[in-house]
Amino acid sequence: MSNFSKVNVLDDARVELHDQLSLTGAEISMNHLPAGTSVPFVHSHKQNEEIYGVLSGKGKVVIDGETILLSEGDWLRIAPVAKRQFFASDDASMRFVCIQVKENSLEGYTMTDAVVE
Amino acid sequence: MSNFSKVNVLDDARVELHDQLSLTGAEISMNHLPAGTSVPFVHSHKQNEEIYGVLSGKGKVVIDGETILLSEGDWLRIAPVAKRQFFASDDASMRFVCIQVKENSLEGYTMTDAVVE
Asked: Would you call B107 an interface residue with chain A, using a CB distance cutoff of 8 Å?
């Protein structure tokens, strides 16, 4: 396998990167909810932590019944067990990235994992 | 620990989310290279896969001596062993997200890990 893989996802409504990039430590999806719409179900996870980042627009997420307003630049961690549903605003769409990783899977990182030449 | 955590990182030059969000499966950094600048070193990793996403602007990355041009919407996987260095364009800055995860740590995902209510 090549030491890198690359894809451009700028113009798609939803893109899942795991297979396109041959990811082995995460699934990453790019999502675009038009104004007034939502992900059509509530979900939780068995073992994956999810990290969400709002790339543009605004909306909200309901987590275990609590409503959190969202706008560009917001990043959230959501524990596997939490029940979540994302909504775009009534008057603005929302683009966001969702990163699924196995909870407690990270060991070293940055200074303890990088090798600087 | 709460079932979620949230932070806004819109206006910062570099932000590391691991500690701010109590992440357990990834380290995520938001990065902003001004035009004409680069990450000041070449690096690789011991065991972490890195996934990079270009949020705005343009630039390039050199991976094991190969130059790949980058623009908004580009996403890359880079294997731990690959030697990499990121550069903004001479005439445009580049904002990107970097996601570190342990290689081969993901088990189920999406349909095999989600629980739909």
From this structure: yes
Residue B112 falls inside a structural domain: no
pLDDT value, residue A117: 85
What is the arithmetic mean of pLDDT over A97-105?
A: 98
Residue ranges making up the domain that contains A49: 14-103
In a domain, residue B1? The reply is: no
Mutate to test the interface with A, among B4, B9, B11, B62 (most CBs of A within 10 A): B4
Residues in B closer than 8 angstroms to A10, CB to CB, are 72-73
Note whether B24 contacts A106, CB cutoff 8 Å: yes
B111 in contact with chain A, both atoms CB, cutoff 8 A = no
Write the residue in A72, A105, A115 that is nearest to B10 by C-beta.
A72
* Distance in angstroms (rounded) separating the CA atoms of residues A50 and A27: 10
Amino acid (one-letter) located at A45: H
Question: For residue range B46-58, what is the model confidence (pLDDT) as tens digits?
Answer: 999 999 999 999 9
Mean pLDDT, residues A72-95: 96
For chain A, what is the domain count? 1
What are the backbone angles phi and psi of residue A84, rounded to the nearest 5°? -135, 150
**CATH number of the domain that B53 lies in?**
2.60.120.10
Q: Cα(first)–Cα(last) distance of chain B, in Å? A: 23
Has residue B28 got a pLDDT over 80?
A: yes
Query: Under 8 Å CB-to-CB from A111, ≥6 apart: which residues?
Result: none
pTM of the model: 0.94
